[in-house]
Specification:
By secondary structure, the chain is of the alpha+beta class. Helix content is 18%, strand content 24%.
Length: 353
């Protein structure tokens, strides 16, 4: 009964304070059982916030640091975020340091990124955009991770994919061979909680924010919005999210903050996503389009906007023996005719079968 009373108090506190239930732990210093039952930490005759509120870590790849660190690693029990002394709405908190060496590579070749773009070859940017990129500061990540592991490469090829999609992309604070398909990170959006991100090195730049649902997601729509001050928001419907906007960061306040969260079905949300944040990198006064001189605000229109992780997978497995619908070896007339026949067949089936 005592535990039920404590849970009721937590619910009331969360409702009244917008999620700031941290003070509940500190009020239970003389009640060890209730403190522990609630999810708080009892130590030295004191009830404190859970250790998971401050579990931090950084993400490295092959022994080299990346542009992502966590001041709050993804919590095993997301609901415990409500017991934290700060940011009770965040089940994970990251700081992203955008850098030249993590450019997402072609076809864009005009950005700074946060993680190695596995599945892409940055060195091509030295040819596509030589005014901004050099081969000495780029790397070919086409077969990463495990570029020299013949078994893993063969397994990926059998699925007509790359290891960036077939290898583990979670627990990256402990795994230095994590997969980052095209520079995306993975996370899960939980009931009533958000994945919160602080973005650095985006002063007076334009930023691109992308996210897509992962295999195994419970579905549902999700959003990205300003975390804290600001009202900028973009949402999606069971698929891909895209937003291109000004960072809002001045040279004197590099503190862009955003959060990803479920828009609907929040009562049982368990949405697995890939997400990525990049910022503009252009010669002064140029858009990146050869021969054109425009304001940097035109950067967004020269982004591909379609380089999501699943583009690294072919439409069919290598040993597919059927009649591929997306076969592009036909001439245009044959393709159009086949498309018409397929459409007619679909309409006929819908109306008469």
């Amino acid at each position: 009964m005592a535990v039920l009373k404590v849970v009721a108090v937590v619910a009331l506190t969360v409702a009244l304070t917008g999620g700031a239930g941290a003070s509940i732990c500190t009020t239970l210093s003389d009640r060890r059982d209730e403190c522990v039952s609630l999810g708080c930490k009892y130590s030295g005759n004191r009830c404190q916030q859970p250790d998971s509120c401050t579990n931090s870590g950084s993400i490295s790849y092959q022994g080299q640091s990346t542009g992502v660190s966590a001041s709050r690693l993804p919590m095993a029990i997301p609901e415990h975020a409500s017991l934290c002394t700060s940011n009770p709405e965040c089940s994970a908190i990251y700081t992203v340091y955008l850098q030249d060496r993590f450019s997402t590579g072609p076809p864009n070749c005009n950005d700074i990124g946060m993680l190695p773009p596995h599945g892409n070859d940055q060195t091509k940017c030295a040819t596509i955009n030589p005014a901004t990129y050099s081969r000495s500061n780029s790397k070919n990540y086409e077969n990463h991770p495990f570029p020299n592991d013949a078994v893993k490469q063969a397994s990926a090829r059998a699925l007509n994919a790359q290891t960036a999609l077939t290898e583990d992309s979670e627990g990256c604070d402990e795994n230095e061979n994590c997969a980052f398909p095209l520079g995306f990170k993975t996370d899960t959006l939980h009931k009533g909680k958000a994945v919160c991100v602080v973005v650095r090195n985006a002063q007076e730049k334009w930023v691109e924010i992308m996210a897509s649902s992962r295999k195994g997601s419970d579905g549902g729509s999700y959003c990205v919005s300003d975390w804290g001050e600001g009202e900028d928001q973009a949402c999606t419907k069971e698929g891909d999210l895209y937003e291109c906007r000004e960072s809002g960061n001045s040279p004197f306040g590099d503190s862009m903050t955003v959060k990803f969260y479920a828009q609907d079905n929040v009562d049982d949300a368990n949405i697995k996503i890939f997400w990525r944040i990049t910022a503009s990198k252009l010669p002064k006064g140029q858009t990146g389009q050869a021969g054109e001189e425009k304001d940097a605000e035109d950067w967004c229109q020269f982004r591909d906007g379609g380089d999501y992780p699943l583009t690294l997978m072919g439409a069919y497995p290598i040993e597919f023996e059927g009649n591929p619908v997306f076969d592009k070896t036909e001439d245009s007339a044959t393709t159009v005719f086949s498309g018409i026949i397929l459409s007619i067949a679909c309409v006929f089936t819908a109306l008469f079968l």
